[in-house]
Specification:
The chain has 72 residues and is an all-alpha fold. It has one domain. The protein has 3 helices and no strands. The longest helix has 22 residues. The protein is elongated, with a radius of gyration of 21 Å. The N and C termini lie far apart (68 Å).
Amino acid sequence: MFVISSVMVVILALSGLVLAFVAYPLRGREISSAPWLGEMLARAAESLPTVDSEADDIAAWQDQADSRAPRG
């Protein structure tokens, strides 16, 4: 029973961090009640990889598909 309770506490803590991450630093806002947490999450948001432009990916995919198309 203790293991299940411990795992649930860890899951709830992680879900709270994810919620705080999505609600505040990802949108450029600060967490007023815990500025240290906001700074930590902002650093995490800056270090995560991001998708720059979907249009560039689509153009590269189309060029690759055109080069594989049979010539006739």
